[in-house]
Design brief:
Number of strands: 7
Number of helices: 9
CATH topology: yeast vps74-n-term truncation variant fold
Number of domains: 1
Oligomer: single chain
CATH architecture: Orthogonal Bundle
CATH superfamily: yeast vps74-n-term truncation variant domain like
Strand order of the largest sheet: 3-4-5
Length: 215
């Protein structure tokens, strides 16, 4: 089973270009997904503002353990928004580590291209699209039906909403029709709802300030 962060990264992948969609929200979304992965294994918890350590023992996942260690080393309890912004400073490293993991699993491959024979560009075409199709199909079916989604899908839908990735799953003609259902599902999980709201708020604040951090 893929992690929340791995599934989110696949959803943010432009299949034609082999690159991650150019949205500032993705850098915060990947951090949010890692926090949700930690919450899933009962390492952290949140209230409406703060993020708290529940268990500092290693998860066995090197990426999650690095995040857990950083949070545990803080000299005081901090807000979820603080950790989203602070941890996103290493978003490029996080992204590359997650991409490497997807490559190791045989889902993506890495290609180096030269632009004008000088500038290098790295692409990540899909090698095996089974997982990508599965997660997109699963999320579409949940949102387009009246069934009660499981907890993992609720979390992922909250992250999709916060990262403005709905248009990577639904056509422009479909988006208006699914907005209500999307909002309904995103409200089902407190942590996911909190993270989604913070990701959206931070992204809007950056855009209003004219700050567009690179990914």
């Amino acid at each position: 089973m893929l992690s929340f962060a791995e599934e989110l990264l696949l959803l943010a992948l432009d299949d034609e270009k082999g690159t991650i969609v150019d949205k500032t929200s993705i850098k915060y979304g990947l951090v949010g997904a890692l926090l949700m992965d930690l919450a899933l294994v009962n390492k952290i918890d949140t209230d409406l503002e703060n993020l708290m350590i529940v268990d500092t023992s290693p998860t066995g996942d090197d990426i999650l353990d690095d995040v857990l260690t950083q949070i545990a080393q803080s000299n005081r309890t901090r807000t979820t928004a603080y950790w989203l912004v602070h941890l996103s400073q290493n978003s490029n490293t996080i992204k590359e580590r997650l991409l490497d993991r997807l490559i190791q699993k045989g889902i993506l491959k890495r290609e180096e291209q030269k632009i004008l024979w000088v500038f290098a560009r790295r692409r990540y075409p899909v090698r095996d699209d089974k997982e990508e199709k599965e997660v997109k199909t699963r999320i579409r079916e949940v949102i387009l039906s009246d069934s009660i989604p499981d907890s993992r899908d609720v979390v992922l839908i909250s992250l999709i909403k916060g990262c403005y990735l709905v248009d990577e799953i639904f056509s422009h003609k479909e988006i208006d029709a699914v907005k209500g259902r999307l909002e309904q599902i995103a409200r089902m999980d407190l942590i996911g709802q909190t993270l989604s709201g913070i990701i959206e708020s931070v992204t809007r604040a950056m855009a209003s300030a004219g700050v567009y951090p690179g990914f």
